[in-house]
Amino acid sequence: MSPRLVLRTDSLPLRRLRWGSNMAIEIDRLTDLLLKMADENAPGREFSAAIAELARTGRFPQLKPVLPAVVYEELWARYQSAPAAFVEEWQHLAHEMQKGFIQHARQRLTSLTRLQHAGNGLTPAWKSIQRALDGSQNDLLRAAVAAEFLDLVEPAVARATHLRECVVASASSEEADRYLDEATRCYFFALFTACAVMCRSVLEEAIKQKLPESLSKLIRTRYRNAATLGNLLHEVNNNLLATGIDPDFPRLANQVNDIGKKAVHQGLLSEDEARSCLQNAREALQMLLRK
After folding, report:
1. Which residues contact 290 (CB under 8 A, 6 or more apart)?
2. Per residue in 256-277, pLDDT tens?
C-alpha cells in the first residue's frame, strides 16, 4: 500500500482552516476612522475655536503677533463692536468646519473634475477660511480622495470577481500590457466609457505587433500611419491566411470595436456594456496571442 497523507482534524482545529476569517478588511471601520480623523483635524477648526476662546476670555490681544496686521485690525474692530456676537460667530465657524469637512472636501475635489461656472454664488465664510488655511496642506483633497477610494473598494472587488487571469501563449508588447491594465482598472473603478476606449487601444496595439511586416508596411502606407481598429480588422479579415490569426478573432474584436465606437460617439456606457467589452477584448487577445 502506498503511503498517504492524512489530515487529522482532531489535531488541527477546524477554526484554523477558515482562511481569512480574522483578516477581513472592514471598510466601514476604515470609513469611521477617516471621519474621526476629519473631526479632529478639519482645517480651520482649531484656528476658529482659538479665536473664539481668546475673545471670550478677554485675551484677544494675544492674536496680534500671530495674525497679519490688517487681519488683526479688522477682527479687533468687529470684536469691539459686538463682543458676544463675534465669539458666537467664530464658535459657529469652528463647528461648521468640523461638521461639513468631508462634504466640503468632496466639493473641493469635484471642483477640479468638472466645469465651474463663474459667479456660482457666494461661498460661505467657513469654506473660504478653510480653503485659505488648507492652501499648502491639501487636507481637503487628501480627505476627499481617501473617502472616494473607500467608497470604491467593495464595488471594485465585486467587479474583479467577474474576471479571471488572461493567460496567453505569446507576448505582445509593453504598450499592450499597459493598455489592458488601464482598461481593467477603469472597469474596476466605474470608469466604464474609458474602459471601452482603452479596450480598443489594446487590440489595436496587439494586432499591429502580430501582423507580418509586409502587411504592416502596406497598412501604414494605406492609412498614413493612422489605422483605426476598424481599419486593422478589415485588413486582418481580408488576409487571415497571411496573418495566421484565428478566424474567430475578427468577430470578437469587432464587438469590442462597436462598443468602443459607441463610447466615443454616442455617450456614456453602462457597467454591463463595459464588462462585455472588456471580457471580449481579453478573449480576443487570447485568440490573437496563440503561438
Report:
1. 168, 169, 170, 246
2. 999 999 999 999 999 999 999 9
CATH 1.20.120.330 residue ranges of the chain are 170-288
Mean pLDDT score, 242-268: 95
- The DSSP secondary-structure symbol of 63 reads G
Which CATH number describes the domain made up of 170-288? 1.20.120.330
Q: First CA to last CA across the chain, in angstroms?
A: 43
The whole-angstrom separation of Cα 198 and Cα 185 is 10
User: What predicted TM-score, i.e. pTM, was given to this entire model?
Assistant: 0.78
From the list 173, 129, 165, 150, the residue with the least C-alpha distance to 33 is: 150
Separation CA 114–CA 110 (nearest Å): 6
C-alpha–C-alpha distance, residues 170 and 283, integer Å: 14
pLDDT band of residue 14 (cuts 50, 70, 90) is: very low
